[in-house]
Amino acid sequence: MIKRGRAEGWLKESIDTFPTWASFHGVTFNGIKIGPLPNFEHRGSTVIAERDLLGGKEDALMTVPKELILSRQNIELFANSDRHLREVLQALGDFGWTARGAVLIYLLMQATVCCPDVKDIGVHNPLTDYIKFLPDELLPTFWTDDEQELLTGTTLRAAVRAKMSSLLREFERIRTATEGIGWCAKYWWDEDTGLLNFDDWMRVDAIYRSRALEFPGVGDSMVPCIDMANHASGDATAALYETDRNGNGILLLRDGKEIQKGGEITITYGDEKGACENIFSYGFLEDAMKSARAMFIDVDIPDDDPLRPAKIYVTTAAPGVRIFEKDDSIDWESDFIWLVVTNEEDGLDFKVKQTIDGQKEIQTFFKDRELDDTSKLRTFLQQDPQWDVYKLRAIVLLQYRIETQIEVLREVGDPERSASIREGPWELARRLRKLELDMLERAGSALQEQGPESLQGRIP
Questions:
Q1: Rounded to 5 degrees, what are φ and ψ at 227?
Q2: For residue range 325-347, what is the model confidence (pLDDT) as tens digits?
Q3: For the domain that residue 50 is a member of, what is the CATH number?
Q4: How many domains is the chain partitioned into structurally?
Q5: Average pLDDT over residues 345-374
Q6: Structural domain span for residue 330
Q7: Strand ranges, E, within 206-311
Q8: What does the alpha-carbon distance between residue 91 and residue 177 come to, in Å, rounded to a whole number?
């Protein structure tokens, strides 16, 4: 998409022209600019102090007009004056009106508008030009097969596979929903004149995933210029982002924070996010990151569990366990694992109910108490005299699952880098493996303290 001769890739604008775009469209800067840091051009563009700055003494460092915020609400407004955008959003139904769905479709539309081969489609607006300044993000979905193989044994491997499957389903859903729209058939899907392919959908997903921020009063959105700021966690975070009373996006220096002229103005993408999520969504790890922080390991329901099909059908929980740091120790949480370790003999039951319109649905019960949401099962189990038994089952299952994950990581080891593997993915994969192995080993030790010995005398 946005191709010259359908072969030369997305059109890009030089970041040198960005200040002109920002000024023309009402973005104001106070003591800052956007550009590459001297001697760190490889990191791309960021927000840089043009003079010494002191938090608490400065007005907003940046103000972005609310009309430029790429949110679901604004896209609805754009669709009122852009019938082509409106046609696609309506064709996609509910997906087209979610924050992520709306933004991705909007980005795809702007890519179409910019394409030299496309005529009389869409409405050109300030954000049409903005996306030309955005760099391609080397997220794991764009790693080669050899590079993704480096992730074997890490939680990122399963996440990338699941994401690729999800993106492919979305892409086919878009094709099915829009191939009956005349201009979509011609410019997107026609074998000879169509320009859209799966890489384009991956690209707009990567743009959104790496730049979307949760703005107060707006929700998940992309805010031009503010989304140029890089991430730094903890005390290294220099600035905060929010909306002002008029709904504009603003960037504020943290109270007491001093940034010298030429220094970088950073924000946080979420200090609680783990190493896996940082690579998955943003394609980097902070140099100072010494722990995986949090990780999600998948857990399956055994094939020989007679209730397995019903459990899979009714579950509302993610199929795994989240392991995370808490107060200098390791803890875990999961709604799903309690469904795995509870069986018919314990009182778990499923019944088929016919609704008034003739449809059938499955109801879940625990000891004759209806369980309308499987995430509530843990509460039911805690109130049961056999709670320590259920807790022990969960701990034993989790210990086994952690041990198998550790074994895979150790078996694969630290693979050598071949000529087909880029340095960036190789280094990220190596660091992630080390961080996750360390966290799994710490989690295993923590679970030993919660195992059978700790419950001795308490289990009937």
A1: -75, 5
A2: 988 889 999 999 999 999 999 99
A3: 3.90.1410.10
A4: 2
A5: 86
A6: 290-455
A7: 213-215, 219-221, 239-243, 249-253, 258-259, 294-298
A8: 6
